[in-house]
Design a protein that fits this description.
With 384 residues, the chain is an alpha+beta fold. The chain has 15 helices and 15 strands. It has a five-stranded antiparallel sheet. The protein has a four-stranded parallel sheet with strand order 5-2-1-6. The protein has a four-stranded antiparallel sheet with strand order 7-10-8-9, covered by helices on one side. Helix 2 links the parallel strand 1 and strand 2. Helix 2 crosses helix 15. The protein starts with a helix and ends in a 9-residue tail after the last helix.
Length: 384
Amino acid sequence: MLDRKRIQEIVGSYDRSNISVGVIASHSALDVCDGAVEEGFKTLAICQRGREKTYTEFFRCQRQGGKAVRGMIDNFVLMDKFKEVMAPAFQQGLRDKSVMLVPNRAFSSYVPLEDIEDRFEVPMVGSRNMLRSEERGEQRDYYWLLQQAGMPFPERIKSPEDIDSLVIVKLHHKVKKLERGFFTAASTKEYLEKSKALLKQGVIDEESLAAARIERYVVGPVFNLDFFYSPLEREYNPIELIGIDWRFETSLDGHVRLPALQQITLNDDQKVPEYTVCGHNSATLRESLLEKAFDLAEKYVKATKEHYAPGIIGPFCLQTCVDKDLNFFVYDVAPRTGGGTNVHMAVGHPYGNALWRAPMSTGRRLAREIRRASEEDRLAEIVT
């Protein structure tokens, strides 16, 4: 892992009057850049050839007298593969332009984690050493951290032979490597039937199936809790709930829109839904549940400080479900900006807006933290 002091020295040499916010052009990049523009920063989108037009054409920023009047992407670079960010000359270019990089899931998915941890010498607004915790199966993954924190998460089922009620099987998709090959089963027999069908269809492979995590299924709605932790805050609680989102998943959401009789008629290729995330929507919680949500965030932040010093910095997302007794279970954790924060973009979210008395998205909250750190000469406290 890069010495944090090295990154703090680099950010200390930045021109604070000319900082740019950079991001890998995927996942939550539009929200990050929109928020940066709102807080007065120029933006840089790092694009991969073949998937760049959203950023290079459709959301390019137009400014008049320095004020953005359209779009949010000021500048972009185009490369054949995202992992080319590791080129020493490219990294030097980012440093020369005083770029602060906001990590998203695309960054940690397309660039090897070893490179990010050991060789990416660009200040990151967030927790570099926590990105690996998102990888299920790592020795100290987010399940390990949840356990250390005493936070509730779905019970793990050790073997398919132990399935005695509805479970969800978590593994990677065979073809769509960054997507899910999840499926549900209520018995060992159903597990074997579904896994056999998915193997035959090429949705999953034997290696991923052998390493899959089987969890008892929590029946209830899902809420992605988009929090923010500010290491700069001294007067108020540093934990903020910026917003809540939930997912649209294919082909699961297509299945639930069908009447039961129609579902029964689906053929073998259609019967088992896929859980590929394709969109998000906004949500709120009943007010009596908010304190439980904050309790989860407090436990998580405390655990990150104990086990991943300096702990979480900036945005993080606790992906939860709520059972019939209004108990939360955390089934996934994003130690960076979540995948659904684009629902906050430009308009903010009821919680963030109410807290800050202005349209406050996750992207804007990130940029506001950068601006405050710059104005108070405390950039070293928000980077790793």
